Amino acid sequence: MSRSGRFGQPDNRDTFSLLVLNVSFRTTADDLFPLFDRYGEVIDIYVPRDHRTGNPRGFAFVRYNYEDEAQDSVDGLDGRKVDGRVIMVQFDKYGPNAEKIHRGRIKEENPKPRGRFRSHSPRRRYQDDYRDRDYRRRSWSRSRERSEQDRNRDSDHRCHSKTRSISPDYDRKHSRYSGPPAHRSPSHSRSPSPRRAPSGEGTPSRPRDRPSPCSGNP
DNA sequence: GTTGAGCGTT
To answer: Does the CB of A10 fall within 7 Å of any strand B atom?
Structure first.
């Protein structure tokens, strides 16, 4: 629940979401509530956190009922120092009302760029990013092939400097921690491990299946 | 425990 206390039911349909960037890691929704509530009625405030550490990511989302209040909040809180950090308030580009923001009078009512903190913030257009992001996702198929090649090359490069002085036994014992890069992914579904020793010899390594290019390659 | 461009959960 994004309710930070007395927040009612947030309506994503008629509400305007504001993105607050440059927020201190210690700043919470409760700290931003009195600040944004001054310029208008805050519907809801949400501060995304990291799933790994649980720490805030450094930005928050503020929802308003009317764009007027949102714009007023942006004009008033944008560039304001909060918790010793200068925050940047701007409209979200992913919200349902993103189009209204672009075609709305928000842009017209702001003909004079304050140029206070936007000068050193060369943020790219999200429209292009959105398309670019989709393009990257489709390139994942080819990314896999490149991954194998890179890995192969890495193996070759390693046999020229390290594997040379290390015994296979030593590598095998420590191969569990420094060998497979997927040791950090507990998900079994993600790592099907297509190449696994069919014989239960108890040797995770496959010296026979994968001959060393150093010795078998003059 | 850290960090500093960016886009979010029941």
So the answer is: yes
